[in-house]
Amino acid sequence: MAPPAVRLEGAGKGTLEVARTRLVVGAALFALGFAILSAQLAKISLLESAAERSRSSAAIGMPLLRADIIDRNGIVLATNLETHSLYADSRLIRTPAATAAHLAEIVPGLDRAKTQFHLASDRGFVWIRRHLTPRQAYEINRLGEPGLQFLREQRRVYPQGEATAHLVGFTNVDNAGLAGIEKAHEGRLTTAPDTPLALSLDVRFQHILHQELAAGMVTYSASGAAGIIIDVDTAEVMAMVSLPSFDPNRDPGRSPGDARFNRASHGIYEMGSTFKTFTIAAALDAGIVELEDGYDASEPLHLARFTIRDFHAENRWLSVPEIFMHSSNIGAAKMALDLGGDRQQAFLASFGLLSPAPVALPEIGAPMTPARWRDINTATIGFGHGIAVSPLQLASAATGLVNGGTMRPPTLLLRNAPTPGVRVINPETSRRMRQLLRLAVKHGTGRKADVEGYLVGGKTGTAEKNSPEGYDRDRLLSSFLGTFPIDNPRYVILAVIDEPHGTENSYGYATGGWTAAPVVGHVVARIGPLAGLPPRPEPIVEAEAPPLLVTPDGTEIRLASF
Prior knowledge:
Beta-lactamase, five-stranded mixed sheet, five-stranded antiparallel sheet
């Protein structure tokens, strides 16, 4: 027989109900606390993984996008390629040693020991290798290792390779710009990723200039080279090359520093006799001299404790055209002294030669000028020593000399509308300078830049490089500053050869006329047809009688008339 049920009445029953209520409430609170604790633990776990992922700016499934960079004709210079990047949840890796060994076989250059260490670290997220090839991703996937996972990312690629490396620049592994246009226009490239950024560059010109400069370097065993092609009327940079170069598709950080240095915009050099172009232009524009005037160059010029000599001395009185044609240091120095330091400074400043080039690049060099502009500075700057500028500055300045006398700021971006310029010299001075530039190519030191049918004008430059012991005669910077067609210029072309060595064919000479001038001539011959400029005969002048030069051997030379 079952025992009778016990019934509680009064205080006992109340006590039991209170205990029961407390038990239920306690259980509920415990459950709630457990849920909160579990949520916090999950949150912490997620935050830890996110913190580890934050080492990359590419969030999971959300890569950093950048706009394409294109040339003026729509040719791609920089674009994005979707890739797979490998990471691991090491907590899920069953055999770290074996997995690391397999990965090292699939991915060349992967550090096996380091990878094994990471796979055994019991971390939720560790990078193994960014930007795998499709084949590598396929082989890794075949391993069937649950702890190995992939992220889709964007990798920046550069179809033109070394040819545009310095100008376009490059990004880091997280697609952030580190150099060149990539860095200078970071905001534009990342905020409008669907709209390509169009440069002023013509990739056809770029490859031609790159090839010809590289050939010149090889021929003359030079340490480097730089070149610029710039539109005379718009100041758009059509090509910019610096050598040696690097492949931006292959970890530029591992390239030698000399290869990553942009000689064209960042390098600062004494440009030698190319500066005589500005000396004579300044003197003509100020009315200091006329083409019929001249200076005595029969003896070296002694100034303070310095002696100024001519490289190929004529040892006679030289007219202004002859000073330019024979590249007389003595004549240019005397002309600069007549002009005066104040006017010389003002003239050079108006052409942008005393301030950094106003171009949106991180790699822009600042010119070196005298702290005190004394007479000796005025004289040496007259023939291109004692002042150092970038090739980009020099090429840009030349546009104002030959286009009728108007300076416009240079640009690497495509200009869709005319840009107002500032008049720096009068049109007649510009015309006279074009006559002299043609004279130097036809009869002077720039003969090897001449191309039949293209009316090339220009000026050679040769400067000894500075060293702790002073100027080094065995280390030259040779250049040629050219323009064509000289009667109606379209382009300025500058070629610079750094530390060339003479050859048997150059009779041992490594000057600008032997090394840089031929480079410009070859470039003109190749880009002329591309620019819609077919060869044509030199114009025959009948209506005008331009100034006549009579050389010591009785040869009559007449300045061209445009």
